[in-house]
Input
Amino acid sequence: MYRLAAFDMDGTLLMRDHKMGGTTLNALHQLVENGVILTFATGRHYIDMKGILSHSGINGYLITGNGTRVYDVEGEPLQSMDLPAELVEFAMRTPWETHASIHIFRDNGWFTDRNDSALLTAHKTSGFQFQLTALDTLPLTGNHKICFIAPHQELVALKTQLEQQMGSEADFCFSAIECLEVLPRGCNKGAALARLSHHLDLTLADCMAFGDAMNDKEMLSQVGRGLVMGNALPQLKQELPHLQVIGRCEQQGVAHYLQHWLSSPHLTYSPEF
Output
């Protein structure tokens, strides 16, 4: 019996309207009734997540910013990791060969100097918004992560540049096909979930996890049972071929899996695609 369940949000629980379906919410409530602790592990900001969960009527532990922050169910911080100040300064002042927009995440919000209203669509439920700011006026300390947003192929080239210049001091991941993130070294959802498990007197073997993108890789590969969404990025499926692929997010594949697991945990699972 797994004691802790960790869920990615976008592409796993949140559908195209950026909300959780009713069947999914029912399944999450059933988990809680069966004594399973819920954890939501996401690249989203804490403020954004609290709005989403409040709207959905569900609660749990939070791993936000792709592992840069961990919060208990009351919203009290359990862990925090920031980018080194000198790395932030270098990243912000180096003329990278890219037209990508740059986004900085801090405890008090999301900051960018590019006014792109299309980016707000994913945050309609919570009302979370960016703050237009001259980025060179932000403090160099207290920054969770830096995000570059652009077409994927441009970001692939940028990732190579960043790794050549900062590879020993930071980690890099695609949290979405058009979003490349710079994170503190050793920071990812898997490492954050390991710390949370320890806080709860559990081990990663006591956890199941669900995800669809490369920022879920460490988490999915380290838990007792990692489940890959049917709509997951092909690279994730290729790198974790031993993990079971379940249904798609739009068909509430997580709920379908959980209903089977709760009612018939010892029977072979056949996903609906």
